[in-house]
Design a protein that fits this description.
This protein is of the alpha/beta class and 228 residues long. It is 36% helix and 22% strand. Strands 1, 2, 3, 4, 5, 6 and 7 form a seven-stranded mixed sheet that branches.
């Protein structure tokens, strides 16, 4: 593979994605540069997988465009030497309604209704059921090459029992559900409710590492060279 610059630009505010990326790339080779805009296309009215997948990929790609624009504004004449790749991602939880229609769950509201909303999600969509965590990644080079992937993982929760309600009370009191897609974190306290994971665990956390490695390889980016 050809030699490349030694910086990967992570277009994300998520500390979890940075921690995962550090499993592949040395911390001093990562630059965090979040998108300037927090506005994202929503999933309202989308209830089938092709439309949800397309929108998810669009969100990650739009974030990538935002970060690339920032880098170009910093140094238009030297952008080809600044970084090996820009990486952006977006993760959602997709559940199935009783009528079979798919529904995307984002982050719970940032107000007093948060606990009630997450409790409802647990009872309505999670306990004793299986849902899908989906992450779109977009990896782009200074030369304009781009690889996009949407990765899915099936997550199953334990069924409810006589201890479940008190466990949900405990979980909501931790505050972990705030700011999490679907209101739970597999790698945190929310993991106590999970009975099985089919697919990439890293994907549920927010960054599918195997698929990211494959994307970097497709773009002829040598991770070992970045770390040296």
């Amino acid at each position: 593979m050809r030699s490349c610059p030694t910086t990967v630009v992570l277009g994300s505010r998520s500390p979890r994605r940075r921690e995962l990326l550090q499993l592949l790339v040395a911390p001093d080779s990562i630059r965090v540069l979040p998108p300037t805009s927090r506005q994202e296309c929503g999933f309202d009215g989308l209830h089938n997988w092709p439309s949800i997948e397309s929108r998810l990929a669009e969100v990650a790609s739009t974030k990538c465009d935002d970060v690339l624009s920032q880098l170009k504004a910093e140094s238009a004449n030297e952008i080809d030497e600044q970084f090996a790749a820009v990486l952006t991602a977006d993760t959602i939880i997709v559940v199935t309604e009783e009528n079979g229609r798919l529904q995307v769950l984002g982050q719970p509201p940032e107000d007093d209704s948060c606990r009630d909303v997450v409790r409802n999600w647990f009872h309505r969509y999670y306990l004793g059921r299986t849902h899908t965590a989906a992450t779109a990644i977009c990896v782009a080079t200074p030369a304009g090459r781009r690889v996009e992937r949407v990765v899915t993982t099936r997550v199953s929760f334990h069924p409810a029992d006589e201890q479940t309600e008190s466990q949900i009370d405990w979980y909501l009191a931790t505050g972990e559900s705030q700011g999490k897609a679907g209101g739970y974190a597999l790698q945190g306290a929310g993991g106590v409710f999970i009975s099985a994971v089919e697919g990439s665990v890293h994907n549920v956390v927010g960054l599918p590492l195997r698929e990211l490695l494959n994307a970097l390889s497709e773009l002829e980016i040598d991770v070992a060279a970045i770390n040296n």
